[in-house]
Prior knowledge:
Layout: E1 12-17, H1 24-32, E2 50-56, E3 60-66, H2 74-87, E4 93-99, H3 106-118, E5 122-127, E6 152-154, H4 163-177, E7 193-197, H5 211-223, E8 226-230, H6 232-238, E9 248-251, H7 256-262, E10 268-271, H8 272-279, H9 283-291, E11 301-306, H10 317-329, H11 331-334, E12 339-344, E13 357-360, H12 368-380, E14 385-387, H13 388-395, H14 399-414
Helix pairs in contact: 9-13
Amino acid sequence: MSLNSTPSAMRVHIGFFGKRNTGKSSLMNVVTGQNVAIVSGVKGTTTDPVFKSMEILPIGPVTLIDTAGLDDDGEIGALRVKKTYRVLNKTDIAVLVVDAFEGLTAYDEQIIRRFRDKGIPYIVAYNKSDLLMTHVMPHGSGSAHDPLGAHEIWVSAKTGMNVGTLKELIARKARQETRSRPIVSDLVSAEDLVVLVVPIDEGSPKGRLILPQQQTIRELLEVGAISVVVKDTELGATLPCLAKSPRLIITDSRVFSRVSAVTPEDVYLTSFSILFARHKGYLDQLAGGAYALASLKEGDTVLISEGCTHHRQCNDIGTVKMPEWIRTYTEKNTGGNLNFEFTSGVDFPEDLSRYSLIVHCGGCMLTEREFKFRQACAKDQNVPITNYGTAIAHMNGILTRSLAIFRETSASAST
């Protein structure tokens, strides 16, 4: 990844949907100005979703997603359509590409209902509209030069007709969709001292900081706070050397207990994982899920899910450390007899009924919409869900302390 690249989770994800042969791939290529997707007159050329990250003016950093046709048939076709529908969980803005001659079909109406059910802003792009200049317009479709409404536009991938307007419409919906919630800037002021604790061990990526650490440091720089970054093994020696007491200490969840033990009681303490749960708007549900750890019983199954795929280390937090910590914490009720299942990347079970608890990673590589989809699935099926940082804080008896700075900030803001 280049130094100037934008992580996928921070990009606006734009999905192109529609029946086969409506020109989805062609329109996506024209929007990007590149041959991103394979174009063919043969129906079903696009089989699996194709992801392409790039920067498009006036939208900014985006990930474009080309999908299989909604009317794909046969046993394999049904699997392709299922993958297409799963892409909705990643989609921030949807572009439904419709053949202008044919108009909306039952397939189109069905996915529009999905857009609405999931709250996904969408645009209906009537492609091949250049051909309508010499043919009779579809019934009720009006003029190819007239706007159809807030969700609809006439376009032509062949001539470029209205493609600029389509990009502006996507950008407008993207701006409406993007929320600007702070990570840490509302918790500190200029010249406040913030200590970030970053362990370096076999579980750490080589030669770089992970995304939440990078983003937190960047926001602290923007607000004018003073950042001090140390390993957990040096925190105890660092604190007495500081000219003033830190306003806040932010730690990696793996060393929460060790950091808590050396952090003075009058200094606020939290974790990157908890910060980002609040930043993305789902801390309350995850905190509630952490309390469900005490309700686990012998033989229960816990799902540990991660949003990214990476090389597993011998002391991997997801597959090794979390199960050990949970077994130890619940031993009184379970005798340590718990079952664990693991998923990573895009894999997330549709049926969660066999799980008594879901423990998720921080989700830094997932879009906000995708993580919220997973939360909603858990809520709909009455399965508590938490994340690493919140669960670890609770198991170490420091969750209340980890949330204290948020309560104080909210109370100050309301007075």
